[in-house]
Write a structure and sequence with these properties.
The protein has 13 helices and twelve strands. The chain is of the alpha/beta class. It folds into two domains: 170 residues, Rossmann fold, CATH 3.40.50; 171 residues, Response regulator (Rossmann fold, 3-Layer(aba) Sandwich), CATH 3.40.50.2300. The strands form three sheets. It has a six-stranded parallel β-sheet, sandwiched between helices. β8, α10 and β9 form a beta-alpha-beta unit. α6 packs across α7. The longest helix has 21 residues. The structure holds beta-D-glucopyranose. The site of beta-D-glucopyranose has 13 residues, from α3.
Length: 364
């Protein structure tokens, strides 16, 4: 790794020398985006996916305000219409002359053409929260550690089962996120790294027998899709007196959908995990219904993205803290990962103490 870094530094230095030898600013478009800098007041594009969870909704204003305060022109777009809308938005950001484009991809594998256009125009591309796959036209990744999120969810499920359902064995079901979102498989792999040994040693049984990512994924992260699948499982596997003890859910929206399904089937609320610290789920946790969620403070993630933009603006290389985990199929994308936190009723007050929206929910 060190050798590589040195070689990279040498290459950049050689490129810089060659450029200065040409003596031309014309050459600068060819130069690495991260070293040339750009004017304050430049356009920064932020392409967000659909509003499939509260974190995306929060990100919109945080980006607008943060970029505004930083002196940039912000172009923040949602793509509620789907992949082609997001492709068009990114293309338009390139045409409008954005210097950096921050992308929360709907489908991480479908942006190759637009991001290549961005790269050709000298735009720096930062993948935000979700990795962009199968292209070398992505420069950085900023996100919470997705594998860790999954591990924390798996462990919370085990802890919750022990605390609420006594000693095992336990019957559970698994839910994963949308297959087009690169995060979904990583969350699932993280959780299964904890749960699989317990399935193998029969502490856990997956009642429906559905254990592969493909079987348990939820298209579009849509609550209705998770609920439909759970309804079918409830009326099949759990029609009689079979108890369902726990559900691995990858986020809060799907956790609430799964709980609705179980309730409608007339069964006791199982131990259900989540992610995102959505207001409704935090309330549910405090009432003793949903067992856990994950805190991934959106403010911190947006702030860090803007720190990266500031670095790029000044011609500095943004700081990264992971250069091995996120191989997008073409390159390992240098990443800055933040630490997710597990939240249950026991530690909610402590974890949310500085969060103006969530802290009040943990009192009284
Ligand atoms: C995010 C999660 C979110 C999900 C659905 C994922 O990519 O990391 O926080 O729950 O998308 O919006």
């Amino acid at each position: 790794m060190k050798k590589f870094t040195k070689a990279a530094v040498a290459l950049v230095a050689a490129a810089a020398l060659a450029l200065s030898a040409c003596g031309g600013r014309e050459g600068s478009a060819q130069q690495s985006n991260s070293t040339s800098g750009f004017d304050k007041g430049s356009l920064i594009g932020v392409a967000l996916p659909q509003k499939t969870s509260e974190n995306w909704v929060l990100a919109e204003n945080l980006f607008k305000d943060g970029l505004d305060k930083g002196g940039y022109k912000a172009d923040v777009q949602f793509a509620n219409g789907g992949v082609s809308e997001q492709q068009n938005q990114i293309q338009a950001m390139v045409t409008k002359g954005a210097k950096v484009i921050i992308v929360g991809a709907i489908d991480g594998s479908q942006l190759g053409t637009q991001l290549k256009a961005a790269k050709d125009a000298g735009v720096t591309v930062i993948a935000y929260d979700r990795l962009v796959k199968n292209t070398d036209a992505v420069d950085y990744y900023v996100a919470y550690d997705n594998f860790k999120v999954g591990q924390l969810q798996g462990q919370a499920l085990l802890d919750g089962l022990k605390a609420r359902k006594g000693s095992g064995p336990y019957t559970i079901e698994l839910i994963a996120g949308s297959p087009d979102d690169a995060n979904s498989q990583v969350f699932f792999d993280g959780a299964m790294s904890v749960l699989k040994p317990k399935i193998d040693d029969k502490t856990l049984t997956v009642g429906s027998g559905q254990t592969t990512f493909q079987q348990v994924a939820t298209q579009g992260w849509k609550a209705e899709n998770a609920q439909k699948r759970m309804d079918t499982i409830m009326s099949g596997t759990y029609a009689g007196s079979t108890k369902l003890d726990g559900i691995l859910s990858p986020n809060d929206t799907l956790a609430r959908a799964a709980m609705t399904s179980v309730k409608q089937a007339g069964k006791d609320v199982p131990v259900v995990t989540g992610q995102d610290s959505e207001v409704e789920s935090v309330k549910s946790i405090m009432e003793g219904a949903q067992y856990s969620t994950i805190y991934k403070d959106t403010t911190a993630l947006v702030q860090h993205s803007i720190v990266m933009v500031d670095d790029l603006q000044q011609g500095k290389k943004p700081e990264v803290n992971d250069e091995k985990s996120y191989d997008n199929g073409v390159k390992v994308v240098p990443a800055y990962l933040l630490e997710p936190k597990i939240v249950t009723k026991d530690n909610a007050a402590e974890v949310y103490k500085d969060d103006k929206t969530l802290a009040p929910l943990t009192k009284g």
